[in-house]
Amino acid sequence: MASDDPDFSDVSGGSSSTADAKGGRTYTIAKGDSLSKIAKRFYGDAKQWKKIHEANKDTIKNPDLIFPGQVIKIPDA
Hints:
The chain is α+β, with helices and mostly antiparallel strands.
């Protein structure tokens, strides 16, 4: 690998995020994810999980019941 190639060795598969037209993003939940883990990843603070839940109340009725493959909105910080 050339020294100027990006290092993706720490990237794990099974999830993705894409930009949304409104400035937010979407995220595909991977096995082992929780809203607090997702909040930590995107905001650096696991306690921000409520913001994600609030933005997805139409699809996430219970924040403890999310499943792999579910696509959720990630609001801007």
